[in-house]
Amino acid sequence: MTENHDELMGPTDARKMVEDGYDQLAERYAEVRTLSPGNKKYIDMLARLLPKDSCVLDLGCGPGVPITKELVRHFKVVGIDFSSNQIELARKNVRIAEFHRMDMTKMTFPPNSFDGIFSYLAIIHVPREEKASLFSKIHEILKPGGFLLIAIGCDDWVSEPGDDFMGEPMYWSQFGAEKTKAMIKDTGFEIIQTSKEYSIFDGEDEKHYFVLAKKKESLEGLLKDSPIQIKKY
Ligand SMILES: C[S@@+](CC[C@H](N)C(=O)[O-])C[C@H]1O[C@@H](n2cnc3c(N)ncnc32)[C@H](O)[C@@H]1O
């Protein structure tokens, strides 16, 4: 496996391969995707940390099952995905969430829009060179004190041309657990919890890396209702 397939395939080709791949396999994917104990554990954790009906964004929501469907039990959910077939399925599967066909690397939500942002196994498809700006964008649209929860691959790895997922050409690009955690921290998040949890796809166990992080509150924000004045020198 090459370490630097990013040099072989540009971000535009990579994006097209992922989008077309999920358009083709949307229905088959929905049939095999099950809610793993790790998924449930972290969603339940979030439900304890955020007030009921908080507004959360599900990035790369896929067909809406099982993740978005579980999220709407606790939150008001906006789901985005760039595969039109995935979004169409998500709209049918989870009628009470709001869905948009949108590329997460180009999303344009206003700053401080969401109390929580979730992304399960979708940032693994974003080219490594675009991850830092994606984490900055996520940080910007999350409210101070809001939570980020992601599940990604554990290893530092970029797929090769010809790799497939469920019979379709597919592209993955990941830094691995430690580097991703460091990037999230450097973006301005406090890391709350991480762990490697099993997910089951198509009958096969695979470990994924979960990160729960909190957007730090600015001093100005923390003191906004206080008589204390901040003096800048
Ligand atoms: C493995 S599926 C995960 C779906 C769902 N989150 C889940 O846990 O079952 C990855 C999803 O991410 C979407 N995706 C990948 N890159 C994306 C991007 N740049 N913008 C929006 N969606 C993206 C794909 O279309 C696909 O539906």
What does this structure look like?
This protein has 233 residues and is α/β, with parallel strands linked by helices. The protein has one domain (5-222): Rossmann fold (3-Layer(aba) Sandwich), CATH 3.40.50. Helices cover 32% and strands 30% of the residues. The chain has helices at 11-32, 37-49, 67-71, 84-93, 131-141, 177-186, 219-222, and strands at 55-59, 76-81, 98-101, 114-120, 142-153, 156-158, 164-165, 168-169, 173-175, 189-201, 204-215. The strands form three sheets. It has a seven-stranded mixed beta sheet with strand order 3-2-1-4-5-11-10. Strands 6-9 form a two-stranded antiparallel sheet. α1 (11-32) runs parallel beside α4. The protein is globular, with a radius of gyration of 18 Å. S-adenosylmethionine binds at residues 18, 22, 33, 60-62, 67, 80-83, 86, 103-105, 120-122, 125-126.
